[in-house]
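Changelog-adjacent note: as of this version, every example in the card shows the full chain rather than a window. The one below runs 129 residues end to end.
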Amino acid sequence: MQWVYVAIGGALGTVLRFFLQGRVQSLFPGPFPIGTLSINLVGSAVIGFAGGLFGSAPAAHPGRLFLMVGILGGFTTFSSFSLENLYLIRDGQGRVAMLYILASNVFGVLFACGGFFLARSLGRSVPGV
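Full-length structure tokens:
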């Protein structure tokens, strides 16, 4: 049953992200990805609230699975990243949090570049792109 909570929540979160991201971006056109930033910030606020709400609940609690793993996992994984860093800082692991933040951002961009250039070097692209 745990998979069902996660799957339904994930589907809802993904559709919600698709709708809200496009809507926000259309309200503020331009090159800055305000839609994505908005989604990440809202998701971070909601997972912080949920983390406080479900903090002592078991990881398999249906509400936690549905909201935190499902909806917010589909909405944005940045929210999980934010909560993990919050917990590291709360637990006195500020240096580990800083390393995680830096590594995720720097290596995330580098890995995205690597994947992009690998696909292009193999001649792999969707027709018309």
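Structural remarks: The chain has a mean pLDDT of 89.
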